[in-house]
Design goal:
The protein is built from 7 helices and 18 strands. It is an alpha+beta fold. It is globular. It starts with a helix and ends with a strand. Bound molecules: uridine-diphosphate-2(N-acetylglucosaminyl) butyric acid. Uridine-diphosphate-2(N-acetylglucosaminyl) butyric acid (EPU) binds next to helix 6.
């Protein structure tokens, strides 16, 4: 979608930068997706005004975080992509509290805190993506989830059109799911983390990295696990047991390393990946009677 010159001029007054015709193959870890205009916001505080402007100009939009858990449609996209401002480092520590921008890199946050002797997040070290994305879906790995550490979230509330702060106790964090509304935008978080020596945290990080390297296709383009695990089960094991590792539609392929990772083997389209997802879901349903739920977020036309 192309932003009109009039809207672009108004956005520039708010400090935002517009980039035309950006390919989402460059912006997503799957390397899949069509093209659209992008808006790089300058300051969190301008978001309510930017949102009002886009609504008045009838410009559909989506916020893109790290792009590591989305499958974006092919072709010219009928919405513009918004990016939160990025500060360097976008995080600070005070006692056992870490204050982190949603646009910060999740792994970067884990190491930043570790160097200041704050731990508890070791399992999240290899989870790709932004802090905002991790908050929205309560990212987790190796027994760690971000949710239990959250004390406050500053967010743009779509329902009120304002920036608000929620206490951790007002937010529900479930397995790969939270109580935020789909259109809410995470802006900043306050985490409370346990004190731990850098050395001890590093040892934990090393163990998680080794486990991840041993089981996941880290050098291929993917969005992490495609399906959530069903209660008490493992989607990866079920798909593997059906002999589907290496199964492909075009260049979309079930990883031969971890069967719940679907990789872009070369130049996969969104439509290839969607067909593969539907096919694998059907096969698991027929054989195991389990309806797998997507973990990856679909942004279709
Ligand atoms: N397994 C197989 N074949 C496979 C994959 C897994 O037999 O192809 C077996 C493993 O041998 C193991 C069991 O299934 O006995 C579970 O596998 P794994 O330890 O890899 O964990 P997972 O349940 O597949 C979950 C998360 C990962 C997270 C790891 C480690 C989900 C959907 N996946 O994977 O998160 O990194 O545990 O904690 O919850 C993600 O969410 O994108 C993700 C990668």
């Amino acid at each position: 979608m192309r932003i009109s010159d009039k809207a672009a001029a108004r956005l520039a007054e708010l400090g935002a930068e517009v980039r035309h015709g950006v390919s989402m193959t460059e912006q997503t870890s799957l390397g899949i997706g069509g093209t659209t205009d992008e808006v790089l916001l300058a300051r969190y505080e301008t978001i309510p005004e930017v949102m009002r402007l886009l609504a008045n100009e009838h410009v559909p939009h989506k916020f893109l975080g790290g792009g590591t858990n989305v499958l974006v449609a092919d072709g010219e996209l009928p919405w513009v992509m918004l990016h939160l401002p990025k500060a360097n480092p976008g995080m600070r520590v005070e006692g056992n509290a870490a204050y982190v921008d949603a646009s910060a890199d999740l792994g970067g946050m884990v190491t930043f805190c570790a160097k200041r002797d704050l731990g508890g997040m070791e399992g999240l070290i290899g989870v790709p993506g932004s802090v905002g994305g991790a908050l929205r879906m309560n990212a987790g790995a190796y027994g760690t989830q971000i949710g239990p550490h959250v004390r406050e979230v500053e967010l743009y509330r779509a329902a009120t059109g304002e920036i608000e702060t929620l206490r951790g106790s007002e937010i529900r964090f479930d397995y790969r799911h939270t109580s935020f509304a789909p259109e809410d935008v995470m802006l900043r978080v306050k985490l409370e983390l346990p004190s731990k020596s850098f050395k001890e945290i590093l040892a934990g990080i090393k163990i998680c990295n080794e486990k991840r390297r041993a089981s996941q296709p880290l050098n291929q383009k993917s969005a992490g696990c495609i399906f959530k695990n069903p209660a008490g089960g493992s989607a990866g094991r079920m798909i593997d047991e059906l002999g589907l590792k290496g199964h492909r539609v075009g260049d979309a392929m079930v990883s031969d390393r971890h069967a719940n990772f679907f990789v872009n083997a070369d130049n996969a389209s969104c439509s290839d990946m969607l067909k593969l997802i539907d096919d694998v879901r059907d096969r698991v349903h027929k054989s195991c009677g389990v309806e797998l739920e997507n973990e990856v977020i679909l942004w279709r036309n």
